[in-house]
Amino acid sequence: MNKDHLIELAFLALVFGSLLFIGPGAVLQHQLDHETPQFGAVDGLLYAMLSKHVAETGNYRYNPFYAVAGFKDSIAYHPPVLMHIVAMFSHVSGLNPYSSLSVILGVFVLFGAFVMYWLIRSYNKKIAMLSVPVFVFLYVFNFVIGYIWGEALLLMGSFFLIALFFLFDKQGLTNWWIPAGILIGATINTHTSETIFFYGFVAFFLGMKLLLRQLPKSERNFWLKQVALATLLALIIGFNYLIIFYNGYYKITGSSYTSFKAVRPEESGAIRVPTVYQFSKPVFYAMLIGAAIALVLARKHAHPALLTSGFMFMVGMSNYVGFHYRAFQQRFLWPITLALFFGITIYFIVKRFSAKLVVPAMLGLLLIGYVVHAHYNPVHTDVIYPSQWEGFKWVEQNTPESARTLFLYGDSYSQSLRIIKRLVFLLDPNDLAAMAQEGKLRRMIKTDPILMSEMYLIYRKGLFDFGYYGKEQNLTIFGAPIDLCGYDYYVVDRQSAYAPQFVQLTVQMANVLLAHNITPVFQNDQIAILKNNNVGGECLA
Fold it and tell me: Angle at which helices 304-318 and 152-167 pack, to 10 degrees?
């Protein structure tokens, strides 16, 4: 091993060790095992619940009954790869599925950064070293939201997509179509959007090479043949999920995902998705210059690294047409896919002074230190209070499987309740406020059942034949008035950091309930759980 190899090896160890420390390490408070999920939004908690379900049942054929209105044969319509990997890792590592999900996501994001480094390195090793400081932005500003909110399918699917980009530099690989087909199949079964982006990149890659007169007939035939074979393999791997996807996402929500009307971030709930300006001004301007230089360099050699960064920039800027608000999510990975532009600018400055590898290695480490010092603040999520978690576990362990539990109000309940293995409902805060204005409690109230409702409770009748419980049984539980007295248990929070006025109202409601054959069965400093001894009877008058 020569000196340059040792320098690069030490550089990579320092870089990725540091990223692991300031990224997943900080979010997880530098400990592997956590009793509660460490995510701050619905998606992360949803996938934590599904991962635990797969770890406990051994498969992902059906959704857990408590997430689909009690139906035990409603098929799982989310892509399955992530949940299976997390469940397997949980069993092998001994970590609970919640912690396993956090670790797996953190590691796969860094795997993606490492693969991107290797793709850039195949173009220029020094540019690769000078690109890695931008990786730090994965964990600052709005970029870190993708991780702490748990955009799990996106993050793992993006790893497979980046690995596919890397393969475009391996034209000499024997049977290129086999690893490519496996990876395309992985994107189908992880986050189908990345499958679409892959074929967009194929068209962009071949189109740019053709435009720049860098695509001889033999190479064109090679790519067309290999991509076609890879596609056939991917279709075999993803066959079952594609059937489910077609009958679920495509038929039910397809119109909102395939619309050609442009959607601005502020119109779609994606306001906190990062923009290029959040790279900070010095980095942004360096990347802007680097993008212009990359365009010039591509005219001489349209290397896959250059085309990857150009394509992913265009995806992040323009693909909000046709993919609804989910399209903005690819920007969470910009610190990986656009890092090349920054590296090119710094390289063209540095190469004038020294050709030794140690110079970009040392400068890369110094720039990482600068970005960390200037922009990094440790973040971690903790949306479930310990006392709430104690109540969640009580409900799971001490109530019948068919019990219906109404949560009156609690901080973050609209997100965290989905991990409880029971049929749970949340009192609509707006309806609670309306009753306060009316000056009286109503027996018929509006609630939010914590269900996975997008696919109308889809179930399978045959290989290609599907039904929808939600439509067939005309279920009207979403937003429809429901009898307050028809629940088996009630959970009442005693304090709130965000809406103490709601807690006061729910405590008053609980006092009324307690006067009507409803008794307390559990309490701690945060919550009280009440049991209804006369379900359906009078509970207010």
Answer: 150
Question: Distance from CA of residue 24 to its chain's centroid?
Answer: 14
Residue 343 sits in the same domain as residue 413: no
> Using CA atoms, how far apart are residues 9 and 347, in angstroms rounded to an integer?
20
| Beta strands at 489-493 and 527-532: parallel, antiparallel or unpaired | antiparallel
* Half-sphere exposure of residue 422: CA atoms within 13 angstroms, side-chain side: 25
123 plus 177 within the same structural domain: yes
Same domain, yes or no: 226 and 357: yes
Model pTM above 0.70? yes
321 and 398 co-located in one domain:
no
Q: Are residues 270 and 395 in the same domain?
A: no
Please indicate, yes or no, whether residues 468 and 498 belong to a single structural domain of this protein: yes
How far is Cα of residue 64 from the mean position of the Cα atoms in its chain? 20
Mapped onto helix, strand or coil, the DSSP state of residue 260 is: coil
Residue 280 region, left (φ>0) first, then alpha (ψ -120 to 50), else beta?
Answer: left
Residues 485 and 446 in one domain: yes
Question: Tokens representing 430?
Answer: 């707006």
Structure-token match 């996975």, residue found: 452
By C-alpha distance, which of 99, 309, 25 is closest to 91?
99
Structure confidence at residue 257 (pLDDT):
40
E strand or H helix that includes residue 502:
helix 500-514
Please give the pLDDT value at position 265.
Answer: 56
Exposed / middle / buried, residue 204 (Cβ in 10 Å: 0-12, 13-18, 19+):
middle
**Which regions in the chain score pLDDT beneath 70?**
1, 253-271, 319-327, 453-455, 476-479
Q: Mind giving me the DSSP string for 104-122?
A: HHHHHHHHHHHHHHHHHHH
Beta bridge partners of 25: none
Kindly report, residue by residue over 205-222, the tens digit of the pLDDT.
999 999 999 999 999 999
What is d(CA 222, CA 170) in angstroms, rounded to the nearest whole number?
12
pLDDT at position 454 is 59
Residue 381 belongs to a domain: no
For residue 381, the tally of other CB atoms under 10 A from its CB is: 20
Do 301 and 342 fall into the same domain?
yes
Is-contact 436 505, C-beta < 8 A?
Answer: yes
Q: What is the pLDDT of residue 264?
A: 58
Give the CA count within 13 Å in the CB-facing half-sphere of 517: 13
Supply φ then ψ for residue 536, to 5 degrees. 90, -15
- Tokens coding 483: 């009898």
Reported as half-sphere exposure (CB side, CA atoms, 13 A), residue 243 has a value of 13
Report how far residue 416's alpha carbon sits from residue 45's, in angstroms, rounded to the nearest whole number.
7
What distance in Å separates the CA atoms of residue 406 and residue 397, rounded to the nearest whole number?
Answer: 16
Secondary structure class of 480 (helix, strand, coil): coil
- Rounded Cα gap, residues 299 and 322, in angstroms: 31
Range of 466's domain? 386-532
Are 300 and 213 a contacting pair, CB within 8 Å?
A: no
Q: How many domains does the chain have?
A: 2
